Amino acid sequence: MIENVVIIGAGNLATQLALALTEKGIQVKQVFSRKLESASALAEKVNAAFTNDLLQLLPEADLYIVAVKDSAILEVLENLHIKNDQLIVHTAGSVPMSILDGFSNNYGVFYPLQTFSKNRKIDFSTIPICIEASHPSTFLALEKLAGRLSSSVNQINSDERKNLHLSAVFVNNFVNHLYAIGADILHEKRLDFGLLKPLILETAQKVQELHPSAAQTGPAKRYDQSIIAAQLKMLHDKPEYQKIYSFVTESIFQFQQKHDHVL
Amino acid sequence: MIENVVIIGAGNLATQLALALTEKGIQVKQVFSRKLESASALAEKVNAAFTNDLLQLLPEADLYIVAVKDSAILEVLENLHIKNDQLIVHTAGSVPMSILDGFSNNYGVFYPLQTFSKNRKIDFSTIPICIEASHPSTFLALEKLAGRLSSSVNQINSDERKNLHLSAVFVNNFVNHLYAIGADILHEKRLDFGLLKPLILETAQKVQELHPSAAQTGPAKRYDQSIIAAQLKMLHDKPEYQKIYSFVTESIFQFQQKHDHVL
Questions:
Q1: Which of A32, A181, A211, A223 could form a disulfide with A8 if both were Cys (CB 3.0 to 4.6 A apart)?
Q2: CATH no. for residue A28?
Q3: Residue B64 forms beta bridges with which residues?
Q4: Number of domains forming the structure of chain A
């Protein structure tokens, strides 16, 4: 049973995960970050020790969680000195579990599918936690830990996780960028972004119940060429928005044609 | 004071508006739709008369609401016989108020900025209602009516409304399409779309408080070229998704560079 952890990383995900674990009674013993002030800031929130030196990692923890950006994982692993049977996981969507092979005999992936900010408290209880492990017993240990945080625990292999992460880029990063474009268009007319907020929320709430193909409305779906042409013209001085408008409109139309018969 | 209305149209917006008005004690006297069964279905919900013949419109209503698709508005107006001083509005984002000029002396626009479905009940109280009117007294009457439905009543002219509608296409139609792409990527791997739902909701909730530029995370923002290249490769058999991926990624990166200094 995992009762305590060492967290390597102090970014958005590391922060929210440390807070959620602590809240559920799992002790965060230590926080590592290359930046001492980041390690210290998070450690303070969860009453943990902290360090910016991987050689100073506490040697006895039930679980080591590597929650650093993808490109830094390997470097961390190469400088980590844990015993062969100590349990280690990473938290990355697009990094295969096999990256951990050789650094311990007991490893896995613990991927919470959500967007995290350092200062925005998040309810972990509904976040899908995606688990993969080197051995069935490791899986069970991670599954149990995940079950203390969330009611959605999922066995997801590296290939599936990679696809989940790709989907997440579309529905989170890209969606957020469309929000930014909406805000930018309004800003130029001195209109308040607040006017779009109820629409943004309802759009997200709608697909909690309906499949997105069934929820689609608007000019692209109807292929209303006069309004599409007029809106493209309004974007004449924003060629990058114009391109997005064209390709997404085209894609919506194709998608609806392909999927209408199955709805 | 507007105490009763005739609604021309029986689509998503007409339906939800009729329900909201009825709930607030404003009588829907009659519903018109070209399809008699659509007119009848909505009329039944709000206890109104119905017709599919514009010549049969009731002659005495405080307000005539034209809530048909953009391309049908003019045809409706040309076949409508109302008195010169009777109040008429349309509900379209991208159609200028001036389309009503000549059909009455007393007209305006009543544009609720939201996505509507026929069968999804919606809370009108937070929906921004955007009003424009031919005369100050008309504006006051429409403002009062809007105020009975929502706490967000906004004076918005035709040019502003056109821009609001363009923004709405980005944050609603296009966002919804990105949800559909996410679902499609998961579907190919037999993964459940439900895994993305908490992420979708949190992404929308985040920008209720933070500006979208400040909420952005992910590989495009960091311009993490190795993951961008890997994800583009995963989409090799979906050229239209690949294009969207490329252009949105490029646009995110440019946007962040341009806006980082003002955040």
A1: A32
A2: 3.40.50.720
A3: B6, B88
A4: 2
